[in-house]
TrEMBL record:
<dbReference type="GO" id="GO:0005524">
    <property type="term" value="F:ATP binding"/>
</dbReference>
<keyword id="KW-0547">Nucleotide-binding</keyword>
<comment type="similarity">
    <text>Belongs to the ABC transporter superfamily.</text>
</comment>
<protein>
    <submittedName>
        <fullName>ABC transporter ATP-binding protein</fullName>
    </submittedName>
</protein>
<keyword id="KW-0813">Transport</keyword>
<feature type="domain" description="ABC transporter">
    <location>
        <begin position="3"/>
        <end position="230"/>
    </location>
</feature>
<keyword id="KW-0067">ATP-binding</keyword>
């Protein structure tokens, strides 16, 4: 049981956004994607999710190819957050759970459970626009966890957050991994990836320039001209 990306390439017209990348993420592992803006992280995630069809190559999860539009066991935190600002947090999360075919009563219970786990049960009746960016991020993360996906894809989960919320989100993600989930996330920052991940991949201009355990990648790191922002 693993996520396989096999020789995946994505072209937009003549432009190659992702160029022949391969990786394997074992079940229960956390895998980090590092790369500068435009390196191809989001495009890779969209292929893993079945939102974009690879121009060449394939992606499979648990032995089944992920083809366009089919990714039922996958949770996704998109880089562009997609919450409705005027909607109440509880209504929004229940709505999103129901889109995943969760019955309403179960959705209500799960939403209360997750808001409690994130220590924000009092946000249930607030509108999204009333929350800080960090707290909106928590709600968006809850939205991606509600149906308890076995594979969780997080696109820049810590970007723009203050250190307290970064720590909170990290521990929530680690807890979810301990419960058995396989997690892939992207970041600009080596320190976040190093702290959380088993293995990492470094993308540069669509190419996978390094991939492996943190130790292996760090050993090769100094030998290559790797453009990774460390802000
Ligand atoms: P960021 O950190 O800025 O999100 P990224 O590593 O996620 O960067 P991608 O969003 O995957 O990078 O983009 C990789 C390249 O592909 C960029 O040059 C981007 O402009 C291009 N690209 C992405 N989507 C499309 C599209 N639909 N049409 C044309 N080009 C695209």
């Amino acid at each position: 049981m693993a996520l396989y990306v096999e020789n995946a390439t994505k072209k937009f017209g003549d432009f190659t956004a992702v160029d022949d990348i391969s990786l394997k993420v074992e079940r229960g592992q956390m895998h980090g994607f590092l790369g500068a803006n435009g390196a191809g992280k989001t495009t890779t995630f969209r292929m893993i999710l079945g939102l974009l069809e690879p121009t060449h190559g394939m992606v499979s999860w648990n032995g089944k190819p992920i083809t366009y539009g089919t990714s039922p066991e996958i949770g996704y935190l998109p880089e562009e957050r997609g919450l409705y600002p005027k909607m109440k947090v509880e209504d929004q999360l229940i709505y999103l759970a129901q889109l995943r075919r969760m019955p309403r009563q179960e959705a209500k219970r799960e939403v209360a459970n997750w808001l409690g786990r994130f220590e924000v049960p009092h946000y249930a009746s607030k509108k999204v626009e009333e929350l800080s960016k960090g707290n909106q991020q928590k709600i968006q993360l809850i939205a991606s966890l509600l149906h308890r996906p076995s594979l969780l894809i997080l696109d820049e989960p810590f970007s723009g957050l203050d250190p307290v919320n970064v720590e909170m989100l990290k521990s929530a993600i680690l807890d979810f991994q301990k419960e058995g989930a396989t997690i892939v996330f992207s970041s600009h920052r080596m320190d976040h990836v190093e702290e959380l991940c088993d293995d990492i991949s470094i993308l540069d201009k669509g190419k996978m320039i390094l991939s492996g355990s943190i130790r292996e990648v760090k050993r090769s790191f100094g030998k290559q001209n790797v453009r990774v922002k460390t802000d």
